[in-house]
TrEMBL record:
The keyword Membrane applies. It holds the Pfam family CzcB_C. Keywords: Coiled coil, Membrane, Transmembrane, Transmembrane helix. Residues 219-292 form the CusB-like beta-barrel domain. Residues 119-170 form a coiled coil. Residues 115-181 form the Multidrug resistance protein MdtA-like alpha-helical hairpin domain. Belongs to the membrane fusion protein (MFP) (TC 8.A.1) family. Residues 300-356 form the CzcB-like C-terminal circularly permuted SH3-like domain. The gene is ttgG. This is Toluene efflux pump periplasmic linker protein TtgG. The chain crosses the membrane at residues 12-29.
Amino acid sequence: MLFKRLQANRKYYVLAVALVICVAGSLFWRESQQTAQQAAGKIPLVRTATVGTAGMSSQAFTYAGEVRGRYESQLAFRVGGKIVKRCVDLGAAVQAGEVLFELDSQDLTQATAGYGAQLAAAQAQLQLAKNNLNRYRQLFAGAAVSRAQLDQYQNAYDTAQAAVRQAAAQYEQGSNQLEYTRLLADQPGVVAAVNAETGQVVSAGQTVLTIVRDGAREVEISVPENRLEELRQVKRCRVTFWALPGVAVDGNIREIAPMADQITRTYKIRITLVNPSPQVKLGMTASVQVTPNLPPMTAVAVPVSAVYQTGSFPAVWVVRDHSVSLRPITIGTMANNTIEVLTGLEPGETIVTAGVHKLQEGQMINSIDGELP
């Protein structure tokens, strides 16, 4: 009886142990499945692409500008006064010697008349001194007067001559001042700006009119300082016009400003147009395309989204055997959402182009292959 009871207990013991093993195995399998699922969930999905080469030396830059004249004259009166007449309008074509503005000349006319009266009086005194001198020369020749008396009349004659010259100079100056009340065009051209109106009182030297002379036409652009050295090496550029879609003109860089503008901090550059079309008018909006004369350089072009910034050093994620590693690069110019990589990448390598901010060094990835732009 005891033996049978022990055998029955042993069977229960074995069943209990088997049950415990089954429960533990089930729990372990479930935990391993959860761990695998969590691990699979940590593998990010990113977009990758194989880099190629692109010639970046031929990249062109476009600047907006305005058509200007080669020579622009800011005209002003040489005397002050009140404007009584404006003879030209904005945009009018003028010829050399044409009257542009007139000042009130009443005061200067009276002053000139006074100078004329002074000249006439000085001439009368000169004639009197001349007659007296001639008479005393005759008396001196007859020994009727002394040498001292003759010298006095000679001195009076010389003084009268000087007074005539002084009065004549004042009269000429007054006549010139009177003539300056009319502002004349010194060269043929086009009125580009009018800065004064009839009834306004202006001072001498105050700009009242701007004339663009006939002749060469230029385009003025503003360039940042980091492009100056490239532009110094450029011999010719291409100019197009917003209002003239079918017109393109070659241009030569003529002048680069030595100092930056105090407000915009850019440098003014003048580009002379080579044989411009008659359709090109002053003030038109122009686009200047400049291709720097850089030495040939083979660079790698990658999307801007592929660059991962770590502090002040740019880098990209390079894919190898389904894992990523961060590699520092040296970048160049940027254009059309791509950036030039000078060093750090070789053609044929695979990089991450989207999802760079959720990666870690050595991390496994799932990738979707793409194409570089």
